[in-house]
Specification:
It contains 15 helices and 11 strands. It is α/β, with parallel strands linked by helices and 393 residues long. The protein has 2 domains: 7-253, Aspartate Aminotransferase, domain 2 (3-Layer(aba) Sandwich); 257-391, Aspartate Aminotransferase, domain 1. Strands 1-7-6-5-4-2-3 form a 7-stranded mixed β-sheet, sandwiched between helices. It has a 4-stranded antiparallel β-sheet with strand order 8-9-11-10. Strand 5, helix 8 (187-190) and strand 6 (200-204) form a beta-alpha-beta unit. Helix 3 (61-74) runs parallel beside helix 10 (243-254) and helix 13 (315-325) packs across helix 15. It binds pyridoxal-5'-phosphate.
Amino acid sequence: MSEYTNFETNAIRHQSQRSQNSEHSVPIYATSSFVFEDAEEARAMFADEVAGNIYSRYSNPNNDEFIQKLCLLEHTEDGIATASGMAAMFCSIAAFVGQGDHIVASRSLFGSTHQILTRLLPKWGISHTYVTINNLEEWGKAIQPNTKLLFVETPSNPAQDLADLEALGQLAKKHNLLLSVDNCFATPYIQNPADYGAHIITHSATKFIDGQGRVLGGAVLGKKDLIKEVRFLARHTGPAMSPFHGWLLSKSLETLAVRMDRHCANASALAKTLEAREEVNWVKYPFLSSHPQHELAKKQMRQGGGLVTFELKGGLEAGKKFLDALKMISLTANLGDARSIATHPASTTHSKLSEEERNAVGITNGLIRISTGLEHIEDIKKDVLEGLLAANA
Ligand SMILES: *Cc1c(COP(=O)(O)O)cnc(C)c1O
């Protein structure tokens, strides 16, 4: 399906056919349904004999443009757009498991994905085993005769540990399982799980893909026969993306490459600055040579990504002082925005877990995660350094 050889060109030039108005920018197809030429066309479309739009819960030109472009960028055949990242996660899992089936997943998952596995799927008789993301032996041992799916997010959040995508791809192949990768943190500009044998790739488009904290959106991508199953589920359960969001997110992809270059440059510079500070115990960033999986990062990622994780020496109290001292960086529950964002999981998102439970997913009391934005690096550094001084006071 590749139109051009280069990522940037596909991201900008893949576009729906122009209408009779010869618009340069694609119009928004704000329509709930589409008109049939005649009774025969209506019959053929409902019978899946000819392609075409019927109803916007099924498909819509804006969402199709967004998803086809994303398929080009992720090296997959097909995909569907969903109203949010979580709709994508749920559909991508629910389409492939049923009563009595089992999933193996990395332990440090996005909070709502964890809730799906632990609270919702068990209601339908679907069980799971959590494993340590970077321990291949654990992955292998957790596979049971009823296992259907391996699910992983890499780099992990917020610990920034990596899954070896090639090794997991081989493991999935050996046991005839599906490998599903939430590629939200890396984006297709940095990492293409399909190249390593991943069958399903999911995204929260809310994050770096939108990149400006404006809308929710999600995507499930993969081979045609697999997406057919996901499409059936989505068609009849209704987590459809709004055409306005499809239009906006397709535009967002046009600038993904330049934005990610800057996110990564800023994150890398911030990581190096933090590594030299005495208030900090350690810094985790995939492209720092001190990262324990640096070689793997270089192999499967083109850059280090936009997130930097570090540990303050002062623990829980230092974390809160750090947040309170920030003047520019936002305290908000998002990431992948043009605006830098700081989070202290131990006092917020993960405060309900015990300290042991937090440690099991690499969240120590003094851990801070920065989603490095597109502001000037000197302004980001200045704000973070003031936070460090306050945390140490
Ligand atoms: C945000 C996020 C999600 C959920 O996406 P929404 O768009 O908020 O529904 C899933 N996975 C990861 C890794 C995320 O960061």
